[in-house]
Amino acid sequence: MNNSPSDQDKRRTFCKVCIGGFTVASAGAVTYPVVTFMGQPVHFSANKPLEVPLEELTVGQAHYAEFQGQQIILLMTEKGPVVLKASCPHLGCNVIWNAADSIFHCPCHGAVFDDSGAVVSGPVSKELAQLPFEIKDGKLIVT
Ligand code: FES
Q1: If you take atom 1 of ligand 1, which residue's CA is the nearest one?
Q2: What is the pLDDT of residue 105?
Q3: Which segments in the chain show pLDDT lower than 50?
Q4: pTM tops 0.70
Q5: DSSP class per residue in the chain
Q6: What is the CATH number of domain 42-142?
Q7: Which end of the chain is more exposed for a tag (fewer CB within 10 A), N or C?
Q8: Is the CB of 88 under 6 A from ligand 1?
């Protein structure tokens, strides 16, 4: 069998492409589930005061947003709007809204919070942090 340098170069290139493709596929296979597990889609993003028209907030539906570098949750409850940090006060995982039960669930260690952010159960004693907001001109404004 004659192995010319060009055949060896082709094999090396082929191996590099295979290894690179495998590396990218592996990184995606690991990263995607972690990202989808840790949080829900971002609907709004702002570094200034975050303004959301009230008509975009449906009762019982949580909206996740990035605000000043942190994940927050805008939730319209039967009692009115609530704005919370998404970060669980236990070890910082982002909580997930369960609309069917009207609770926030932490996927990391099972903490449960009600729709105001108060602790229902789990290894945590602090409630979800609330953020100040105002209602003006039909908009919810997080400052
Ligand atoms: S990080 Fe939420 S319960 Fe541990």
Answers
A1: 91
A2: 97
A3: 1, 32-33, 35-42
A4: no
A5: ----HHHHHHHHHHHHHHHHHHHHHHHHHHHHHHHHHH---EEEEESS-EEEEGGG--BT-EEEEEETTEEEEEEEETTEEEEEESB-TTT-PBPEEETTTTEEE-TTT--EE-TTS-EEESS--SPPPB--EEEETTEEEE-
A6: 2.102.10.10
A7: N
A8: yes
